[in-house]
Amino acid sequence: MLALIIKRILLAIPVLLVVASLTFVLVRIVPGGPFDADKNLPPEIIANLNAKYHLDKPVPEQYLLYLGRLAQGDLGVSYKYVNRTVNDILADAFPVSLQLGTISLTLAVLVGVPLGAIAAVCRGRKEDVIAMFLSTLGISVPGFVIGATLIFVFAIKLRVLPVGLWESPWHVVLPAVTLAFSPAAYLARLTRASVLEIVEKDWVRTARSKGLSQWNTVLKHILRNSLIPVVTVLGPLTAIVITGSFVVEYIYAIPGMGRFFITAVMNRDYDLILGTTLVFAVLLIIANTFVDLAYQFLDPRMRIED
Amino acid sequence: MRNIGDDRYLISAFAKRLGHCFLAMLLLISVLSLSACTRPRSRFETGVLRVNLGTEPPGLDWHTATDSTSFDVVSNLMVGLTQYTNKLTCAPSCAKSWEILDGGRRYVFHLRDDLRWTDGKPVTAYDFEYAWKRLLNPVTAAQYAFFLYDVVNAREYNTGKLKSADTLGIKAVDDHTFEVRLRKPAAYFIYLTAFCVSFPMRKDVVEKWGDRWTEPEHFVTNGPFKLTKWQHEYKMELAANESYFDRVPQVKLIKMFMVPEASTAFALYENDELDFIDNRSFATPDVERYRNSPEYKNFPLLRANYLAFNVSKKPFTDVRIRKAVAMAIDRSIFPRILRRGERPATSWIPPALPGYSPDSGTKFDPAAARALLAEAGYPGGKGLPKAELLYPNRDDVRLTVEATQDQLKRNLGMEIELVNQEWKVYLATVRKDAPPMFRNSWGADFPDPETFMNLFTKDCGNNDTKWSDPRYDALIEAAQGELNAAKRADLYRQADVMLCREAVPIVPTFLATQNIMIKPWVTGIAINPLDLQFFKDVVVSDSQANQRETR
Amino acid sequence: MEIVEKAPVPVAAPLDQSVMARIKRIPTAYLALWIIGAICVVALLSFMGCSLCQYSFDQTSSDFLAGPSTEHWMGTDELGRDLFSRIVYGARLSIAIGLTTAAVAFVIGTLYGALSGYLGGKVDTLMMRGVDIAYSLPDLLVMILIGVLLGRGTVGILIALGLVSWMGTARLVRAQFLQLKNEEFIEAARAQGQSGWNIVFKHLLPNALGPIIVALTFTVPSAILSESTLSFIGLGLSPPACSWGTLASDGWRSLRAHPHLIFFPSLFIFITVLSFNFLGDGLRDALDPRTRLGKKSH
Predict the structure, then answer these.
(1) For residue B1, what pLDDT is reported?
(2) By CB count within 10 A, which of A186, B519, C210, C284 is most buried?
(3) Residue from B421, B424, B427, B437 whose CB has the most chain C CBs within 10 Å, to mutate
(4) In this structure, are residues C81 and C55 in contact, taking their beta carbons and an 8 Å threshold?
(5) Per residue in A19-33, pLDDT tens?
């Protein structure tokens, strides 16, 4: 287990390097630059700006400069938020997203997995159909519609929860629910499918027929084994959810980092694009490492190279 | 060995147990949220104004900021040599008086002697000299440095042709006298002294804190408010500046939230969590619902939308076809589909500015338009190649171009292909090789026709139409140096006729409007067509609310 | 009913008409199949220029933002166009995108994941790091670039969406394979000397189908909705053409004032996705090797 972790940490370095390099190239070949604005600037001023941010140097030199700074943990400066560094921006925004994301993810697991399990054991009955409707609603209705509807019902009509902003614990409820909707729906469907797979396995029947106590059978064997697909999607899902959602942050005015995945690209804020991408990549690598560790815990027969 | 039929029992027991857990959790969540509604809340706080900025200001350094959000904040934190009145004329501010000498080539400003920065030090002419030279210094890389290009040697210094700032036409004669020399008379120059880019700046503060000098703990300003708190991407707090030389504002605190989604901000206003909102906080359907509310106001902005041709691309190389398009678009469609009280426009100079005339542009006349098209060799639009119309993807813009497409098809038989691009790609495309038609807009930087008319001169970097005419350029240059207001207005009017009636490189479509709502307990918010929001005269109090309600 | 105690090697039945026959026996799946079929037919008809609607999708009128009525039974939009006609017109792109993206995700994701999971070891580690990289690249940037390279048009959309949606499926398939590899029946098949190809496609894949089908039925709505993002960055349709995704994303701000603008497009997406889910469930049952051996408990 320790070997696996060490190996993954070592592997993370080339992976991050590839991600950084590809993104570095991508941002520079996409048309439009950071200083294009609706008021066109005189070429001399663009030249001043490019000089300030070293964008006048040849691209390979820019690349080396970037890697040099990256090695020191410096993610660079924002061209849009002129007085702030990417480190500053992410240090302000990530904790907010992390907080909201953790709550949402917990909510999604707590609702999604039981819902899926109920649907599976009540297969074909009304519980199953209700679960199907709920989860279809969760995935087919876009986040902004869910958010707007929740605001309308709970904040405007019933006035029991705040419309938006990020002040008290009450302000977390609606965004967390909105953010949890689609993951919960996915987890529910996935749990249902994999519980069904397992329930029909011969060894489950065997265990059952041997008269083990009911709860032991169901929980220990079925859930544990059927959790594999759930855990699999939880890896990337964790990275996605805790780095924030553009839609949720936008609708509820939450100062998280999800917005930068969109706005940084829109602004061609090169270093900020790279910064958010790298943070996401780091979290994804960590999450997927945990997923592989979890496999071995859930099903010791599964062999991951270590 | 048990029969498999027992599974039924087993499974349903399991399901029930899980179901109960699930229900209990839902119940817990709803109880928790219901208990939230018991907290009492007053509708407002006396002396506190809550507004929505929409987004994070990209930066408060007024040399590197270029956007209206940053300027909205800066113009409440800082004052310059002059400041705008509510009628958009320039009134004395830091400068108590000024002289215009040498036929408009030299300006001498006399500063008040009771000016103070928020840290107690006096504001002097040297702070202006430092600020203007920093703006023009190429190392600052200020995007708006070109606003001062009329100053002697400014362009040369900013572009690196001149290494030293000593020969610039900018000089602090003594603590209270500031002198500026221009390379040619520029009638609009005085407006620039009320614009954020020309505000003074403290050398010691900027040099000590570097890029972080605009953070609240370091920031030193001279205006009616001071920055006390800045939670990035979320909220700013501005407190009244007790040492402000003019009149200390009555409102003690302004909370500026950054709520990007308009419908959320509007709901916050409805729930009394914001006191003043504008376009940034209005989704179009909200405008309709509150059109008759006493809290609602709508007024036109100096922000014009237009359809531009690339006159070097067929079929718009032919002026008759351009004219036909201009005459085939019924501008009254725009307010009906955009539903924010937009003002249809046929001339490029908007009604609020000198030089405006209702007859400068063409009228909607589909019959005459068809005749022109036939004259150009395309009767009924037959034989016309399908022309591309490029636009940046924003909701309101999409509706505008869809309506334009529909009208041209209906009134001229002209087929238009709509092409949308992401904003930056759009900008790059228009600049590099503009398609035959594109949609664009322009917001005024100062209340003078120059800001609009200069756009279509030959050397303007924003003229993407490929159209130019020496006669037009001559008219604009003459107008720039003309000190007689009436003559100047007439020169601009002639140029406007040329632009909108004769050569038609652009088709003005409509003027954007500002929609605002103000709670009854708030008074004194200054509104103007430049969309500058000054909060120094705001009063938030109960008596205001009562007064309004009884009225 | 009897219980089979020992674990025999389940031999996958060939995919014959029995799949269809099985789906027919599941009423929800059968109904879903009909609904999807109907939507496809309507989309196809409108593609061939044969419209079922009274109005054309781009025909404007002065009847702006009318609510549902006998005239326009789903109301009209900001330019007075009939919403029902636009939804019918939008079906073609949305269905095409949903289906192809799911297909691309299935093919690439399954092959990649199967290879990685089946081979395991170093190959698996490396291939999964590849997935990490693909996952990490900023989608938006990749899609803008594809838009610039390929120009506008449907092919660009399909490629763009396909490229950013296969990774989830790949990881799921890999996990299922890593787990199933150790099952007795696989070892039995190996012992019988069956080829790797056979083991992967005849034994492992059919047993892993449940979660894969779920992943696929989720790709459909997310592709339909993502398409509106693509239109936003200029890679989608050029107006007045529309899709369910663009209709929904244009309409949501009208939730309070003109709810029909968001309700009807969402309803159609919902019905379609629901049908795909029911069909997916039915398909899983129909393809499941165990159920085909008649060992189902109900």
Answers:
(1) 33
(2) C210
(3) B421
(4) yes
(5) 999 999 999 988 888
